[in-house]
């Protein structure tokens, strides 16, 4: 695949519904701190946040399984017709410090509906109450359990934002250990460099209704704790080419009003240059994790591409 083939602008003009959705989100209180100075107060002494409960209607729409990995709940949704041919392991976003949002559940349901796959959501512990290594242990345990029941090639790792980071981190741990790899990776607006080093993000920042560079840099430091935030373990963007070349075929989806579009481009270039199979799809005017706005044209296009990718 040539460098030119790696990138595709899927939507050159935002739909009216994505504009409306962005406006509505912009009027709500931000779920993330907006300045570096606000991060400490945001994290210290807070009441432990809890995962948004699965909507009760899901019990009618899907066959639901609840189980545990490393002591943490996992929820699996199967199509009513039976287990899917593929199994998506989905890691939710939240900057590593926030649990499952209620907005994540419709996206998870849409993944089942669009792809016919079974989807598992590990409800992993969040920082700073839990360490980065505890999050990794929960992710590893969930994958090991699913890989004991499904052929690894039929497993797809997916996630949004910090969850997209967790997907890559898990895949790279499997590479380093020489363990069986999943068949594909699907990344929604992944957080790839917790140091937020690329100044090009400043040009996108005024358009991003959720994320701010300085605040995320401080969150990244707090999450990394005593590990260098710029290490490949904390920032997959800096993974050596020899490891990048071994990760499964990857698709990335990101809006152009999302500061993570900058590192998504850099990562896609690096992965392609290393010999990996990658495609980056961008959407004009779309906000961070726009695919969670499931009624929009952009979200439907994204999920349709995921469906076709899983068929390949």
UniProtKB/TrEMBL annotation:
<dbReference type="InterPro" id="IPR029058">
    <property type="entry name" value="AB_hydrolase_fold"/>
</dbReference>
<dbReference type="InterPro" id="IPR050300">
    <property type="entry name" value="GDXG_lipolytic_enzyme"/>
</dbReference>
<dbReference type="GO" id="GO:0016787">
    <property type="term" value="F:hydrolase activity"/>
</dbReference>
<dbReference type="Pfam" id="PF07859">
    <property type="entry name" value="Abhydrolase_3"/>
</dbReference>
<keyword id="KW-0378">Hydrolase</keyword>
<dbReference type="InterPro" id="IPR013094">
    <property type="entry name" value="AB_hydrolase_3"/>
</dbReference>
<feature type="domain" description="Alpha/beta hydrolase fold-3">
    <location>
        <begin position="88"/>
        <end position="291"/>
    </location>
</feature>
<protein>
    <submittedName>
        <fullName>Alpha/beta hydrolase</fullName>
    </submittedName>
</protein>
